[in-house]
Amino acid sequence: MLKLIIFGPPSAGKGTQAQRLSERYGIPQIATGDLLRDAVAKQTPLGAKIKSYLDSGRLGPDDLIVQLISDRVSKPDCAGGYILDGFPRTMGQARELDKMAEVDIVLNIVVDMERLVERAIGRRTCGQCAAVYHVSFNPPKAPGVCDKCGSGLIQRDDDKEDTVRNRLRIYMEQTAPLLEHFRMNDNLVDIDGSKGIDGVFDQMVEAIERVRA
Ligand code: ADP
Ligand code: ZN
Questions:
Q1: pLDDT in tens, 68-81
Q2: Which residue among 7, 117, 133, 134 has the greatest number of ligand 1 atoms within 8 angstroms of its CB, and so is best to mutate?
Q3: Which three-class secondary structure state does DSSP give residue 204?
Q4: pTM of this prediction?
């Protein structure tokens, strides 16, 4: 059983690492943003409620997000653990999570502001399988085409520069304070996110092996 949180500001590399850790440890990546975007695309009742929040880069209401996650972690594929990517994002969500599960480790990706903007602006995502690329730092083999499934890559609406800066500001105000909460739970590990994708991954695996030992 292995339960992880990948934490950090928007476009720090959470999704990229969660995807790799999911393959390495055989546990699902629970990407809150993908679940929400999926709900919007499928026009579910939750999706209709959440659309305006996503479009503006604001956080969705805690009760909806918590419901979404608690449904997801009770699915059978989560029996051996899971990777939370993009949850919790507020103190309210963190308190609900504490009631729901005991997380083994919180991996906090530390990256400076300008790198974050650069990563967000160059991000490209597969419309089909949600694989994540970067035009310079992690380009697909053929431009605009997903290596994994061959579908077209898209730029997310919320990866425009001013939305990115807005999301970073919201992170600083509402999400960064959770670090104190995790530090109290004594399961927080800082990861140097200025390294390349492999360098970040190696640090994470090392930290996970340490808590499992
Ligand atoms: P998050 O899930 O935290 O928003 P992503 O995993 O989507 O972040 O990564 C944001 C962008 O930065 C993507 O384009 C990704 O390819 C790129 N990226 C991720 N990790 C690194 C890294 N260590 N170095 C350079 N670019 C990275
Ligand atoms: Zn794909």
A1: 999 999 999 999 99
A2: 134
A3: helix
A4: 0.93
